[in-house]
């Protein structure tokens, strides 16, 4: 059975920055609160009129270039919770703009765990022989979904895209990805949600009913989410490491969804990862949802932290609730 092997990677952060000082200038918050509660200092945000696909096209192009360009892809998967539109899906548009013509393309929606769900989908397509080269992009523009006046959420999110080109290969070669461990708990769906915009709100009440303007914004019960995040990421990480036949001490880098520095610290402490074995870019990018893991991988490879042969443990958690973990060894590739 073939395994998914990383052949290229790339990321894209929009140039516009929002610093803690920008937020404290207009909201009842402080640099000290944001840094100590979240570990964040700066976020990259899209300009009005831009969208998730604009980030994804750039990251996708960089991953294709990193893989040596010419080979293209025979499937494109976009993990996102902020598609450009409700209809159509965003992946076909990205695919066309990348010049991949009529390549099959679809969106995967699993909030901040979306990249891992996409990785599992891609691994399955490769294992069955249905595909040989898959471009998997994690992209989100959560700043389009948070209430700009809600200090509880606006400080947390940035926009980004990260991508990997996966090819069919062998389980024991550099770049090979272990089949992800995944989980969900829909009984806690209300902890993280955007109440309006889906069929539930559209079908409730008579057509003339005025929509609640606030219901279009992202809401999160941060404290409860925090509690579940630590437990689920730790559990699934242990399982993924065991599935790979590794011990936690064999892993060079913990690459966890950059939701909150305190969550990252709690998960790392629980699993026994010292600070020197934790990848992090939360201070510079904030929480970028489905883009978080591939962006962190690509940035860490690009700055030389992540090197060929390093063993990596990925884990993420988010709305759904959805979570997961996976292992990989980093390949010998150039990431610009
Ligand atoms: O990516 C998907 C998964 N997401 C996560 O895993 C996020 C998980 N949760 C978190 O990251 C944290 O819970 C938050 C960063 C969202 C919040 O931190 P917290 O320590 O759990 O704070 P809290 O929500 O319990 O709020 C504590 C206080 C409240 O004030 P009172 O009620 O104690 O007077 C909030 O109103 O902090 C207040 N607060 C703020 N104060 C200053 C909330 N946001 C802010 C703010 N500045 N930006």
Quaternary structure state of the chains depicted: single chain
**What order do the SSEs take from the amino end to the carboxyl end, as H and E?**
EEHHEHEHEHEHEEEHEHEHHHEE
* Biggest beta-sheet profile: 5 strands, mixed
Number of strands: 13
Tally of distinct domains: 2
Task: Give the termini separation.
Answer: 31 Å
Task: Explain this structure.
α3 (52-66) crosses α4 (91-97) and α8 runs parallel beside α9 (261-271). The chain has helices spanning 20-24, 31-38, 52-66, 91-97, 114-127, 151-154, 199-203, 222-243, 261-271, 282-285, 292-302; strands at residues 3-12, 17-19, 42-44, 75-79, 105-108, 133-141, 159-169, 181-184, 192-193, 219-220, 253-256, 311-318, 322-329. The longest helix is centred in the last third of the chain and has 22 residues, at 222-243. The protein has 336 residues and is an alpha/beta fold. The protein has 2 domains: 3-169, Thiolase/Chalcone synthase (Peroxisomal Thiolase, Chain A, domain 1), CATH 3.40.47; 181-187 and 217-329, 3-Layer(aba) Sandwich (Peroxisomal Thiolase, Chain A, domain 1), CATH 3.40.47.
């Amino acid at each position: 059975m073939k395994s998914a092997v990383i052949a290229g990677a790339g990321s894209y952060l929009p140039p516009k920055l929002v610093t803690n000082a920008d937020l404290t200038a207009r909201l009842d918050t402080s640099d000290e609160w944001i840094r100590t509660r979240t570990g964040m200092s700066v976020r990259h945000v899209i300009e009005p009129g831009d969208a998730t696909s604009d980030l994804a096209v750039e990251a996708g192009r960089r991953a294709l270039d990193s893989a040596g360009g010419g080979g293209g892809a025979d499937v494109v998967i976009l993990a996102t919770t902020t598609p450009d539109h409700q209809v159509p899906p965003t992946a076909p548009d990205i695919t066309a703009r990348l010049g991949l013509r009529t390549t099959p393309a679809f969106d995967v929606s699993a909030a901040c765990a979306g990249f891992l769900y996409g990785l599992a989908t891609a691994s399955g397509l490769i294992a069955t022989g249905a595909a040989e080269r898959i471009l998997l992009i994690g992209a989100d523009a959560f700043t389009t979904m948070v209430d700009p006046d809600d200090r509880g959420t606006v400080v947390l999110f940035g926009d980004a895209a990260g991508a990997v080109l996966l090819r069919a290969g062998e389980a024991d070669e550099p770049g090979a990805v272990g089949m992800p461990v995944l989980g969900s708990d829909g009984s806690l769906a209300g902890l993280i949600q955007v109440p309006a915009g889906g069929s539930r709100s559209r079908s409730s009440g008579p057509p003339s009913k005025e929509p609640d303007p606030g219901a279009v914004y992202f809401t999160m019960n941060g404290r409860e989410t925090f509690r579940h995040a630590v437990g689920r990421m730790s559990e699934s990480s242990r399982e993924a490491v065991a599935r790979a036949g590794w011990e936690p001490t064999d892993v060079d880098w913990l690459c966890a969804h950059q939701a909150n520095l305190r969550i990252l610290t709690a998960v790392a402490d629980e699993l026994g990862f010292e600070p020197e074995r934790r990848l992090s870019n939360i201070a510079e990018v904030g929480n970028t949802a489905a883009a978080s893991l591939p962006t962190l991988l690509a940035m860490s490879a690009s700055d030389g932290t992540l090197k060929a042969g390093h063993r990596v443990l990925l884990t993420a958690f988010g709305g759904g609730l959805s979570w997961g973990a996976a292992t990989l060894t980093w390949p010998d590739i150039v990431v610009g």
